[in-house]
Amino acid sequence: MFTLADIFGHISNTIYLVGSVIKGSLALRLSWVLGAVAELVYYVYAAPEPLWTSIAWCGLITGLNLYQIMLILLQRRKSGLSPQEQALYQQLFHAMDWGNFKKMMKTATWEVLSEDRIVIAENERTDYLFLLANGAADVTLSGKPIAQLGSGSFIGEMSLLTGQVPTATVEVERGATLVSWPKAAINKLQQADESLNNELYAVFSRDIIEKIKHQNLQLAG
């Protein structure tokens, strides 16, 4: 039979365990604070006398993480990102640190297409990475349709990752909202910041997996 102190001990360790797999600095620090508070309660009641050394360390951990949370929230408040960019972060880039995402958006260009546009041509090198923020695009190979992309899809990320020329043509439909980055700017950010590079790879991996799932559904249909 668990005592009340045992329950708080298990709760604190469970929170630490969950926090160890959380992505995003804010959520991670919140989990540390909750875990430390639950652990503090455990140390108060687990022994006949409060374990003051452990309690002091838990209080220090809690205070430092609350301070870091405040800094993160202030950074986000002062970030200067538009509502569009904030929505994009929540939709696709939440695996990235907020500051790294802000760095990427400084080099991004937003555009609403007034007509259909081929943004990637088969076997032709491109200097840009594209993101279909809203709308649709058709993918063709040797003039034959092979897939359709929807909102939230990257275009040209494989070319960026491998350095090879695109193997298909992508035509974005009129009215779509397109975000573009110069590849040179992305490469510069990747080389300067390893954490940004790793986070961007995680975002691309998720996008590629979603494309494979969607293509399998199209083939099955």
From TrEMBL:
The chain crosses the membrane at residues 26-45, 51-74. It comes from the Bacteria. InterPro entries: cNMP-bd_dom, cNMP-bd_dom_sf, POPDC1-3, POPDC1-3_dom, RmlC-like_jellyroll. It is a multi-pass membrane protein. It holds the Pfam family POPDC1-3. Residues 92-207 form the Cyclic nucleotide-binding domain. Keywords: Cell adhesion, Cell junction, Cell membrane, Developmental protein, Glycoprotein, Membrane, Tight junction, Transmembrane, Transmembrane helix. It is found in: Cell junction, Tight junction; Lateral cell membrane; Membrane. PROSITE patterns: CNMP_BINDING_3 (PS50042). CDD domains: CAP_ED. The keyword Transmembrane helix applies. Belongs to the popeye family. This is Cyclic nucleotide-binding domain-containing protein.
